[in-house]
Design goal:
mainly alpha; 82% helix
Length: 295
């Protein structure tokens, strides 16, 4: 196989993670301007509208009734996950929030054992302890700098709960990928999330000004593009080879946070992120290479 074809999935994964990180940065601005609920609800609504023509052009692929239950389960989980995560990034620096969220694959190992009957290796316990240590280091760094306010604590708690939901989402994503095409998944997840979130629209929706709508539409476009790019890459290379590239999201978050929001990243955040990444690397290599970070 030519080297360019071998390297292309890796290059596409780097691009996909960069685009997802840009989406997070855009959504932070949209959530600060329009509110977290409005930004998430409209992003998924716009995302469904953008994916509908792609789905039609692909021949309207549908996996049938067998996939419907998994689609609904994942949409419910990701609705709560998204609201908590995007709240977290409105009160925490992007890089710090992303670093804490990296603990999700470690939690996913335990969900996989509970829901899929997979065996937890001793290395997974060590990996989990490293992940917890990483989160504690980040929190200790905030405490030492005097920046551990009630708002910061609520942000950290929101990111941690979001990571638990994301871990469950990873397990459901594996089931979903076995039943449905990437185009169907991208359409249905956006559509079902929008339908679930619409239930609260009479009370929580605050229609944003034109600049906010543009931001949200851009975030939806970036999310759809990144999802399709990563789905293409994961179909052409082993997950265990691509997962380490996903941690470049921390570097992109540092860049976008500094560039757009003037956010500085302290040594404690970098050290905490390193501990979490090492823990994830141990767990993924020895336990379950199929669990990735792709949204």
């Amino acid at each position: 196989m030519p080297a360019t074809r071998t390297l292309l999935p890796f290059a596409m994964t780097v691009a996909g993670i960069a685009i997802f990180s840009a989406m997070d940065a855009v959504m932070k601005g949209a959530a600060l301007a329009a509110g977290v609920y409005t930004a998430v609800f409209l992003r998924n609504s716009f995302g469904a509208a953008m994916m509908a023509p792609v789905w039609l052009a692909a021949g309207k692929p549908l996996a049938g009734r067998a996939a419907l239950r998994v689609h609904i389960q994942r949409a419910v989980v990701t609705s709560g996950m998204a609201l908590l995560f995007f709240y977290g990034i409105t009160v925490l620096p992007l890089a710090e929030a992303i670093a804490i969220s990296f603990i999700a694959p470690l939690i996913a190992l335990y969900f996989a054992a509970l829901l899929l009957g997979e065996r937890i290796q001793p290395s997974a316990v060590i990996a989990s302890l490293l992940g917890i240590a990483g989160v504690l280091v980040i929190g200790a760094g905030r405490m030492q700098s005097g920046a551990l306010s009630d708002e910061a604590l609520s942000g950290i708690a929101a990111i941690l709960v979001s990571a638990v939901l994301y871990a469950l989402n990873l397990v459901l994503q594996r089931k979903q990928a076995l039943l449905s095409s990437p185009i169907e998944i991208a359409l249905v997840q956006n559509l079902f999330m929008a339908m679930i979130l619409a239930l609260a629209a009479p009370w929580w929706l605050n229609w944003p000004a034109w600049p906010g709508l543009v931001q949200i539409a851009l975030a939806a476009l970036l999310a759809c593009a990144a999802l399709l790019i990563l789905s293409w890459a994961y179909a052409r290379a082993e997950a265990q080879a691509l997962v380490p590239i996903e941690y470049t999201g921390f570097l992109w978050a540092m860049l976008f946070g500094w560039w757009l929001y003037d956010e500085a990243v302290g040594a404690a955040t970098v050290l905490g992120a390193a501990l979490i990444v090492v823990g994830c690397s141990i767990a993924m290599r020895r336990q379950n290479p199929q669990l990735g970070l792709a949204p």
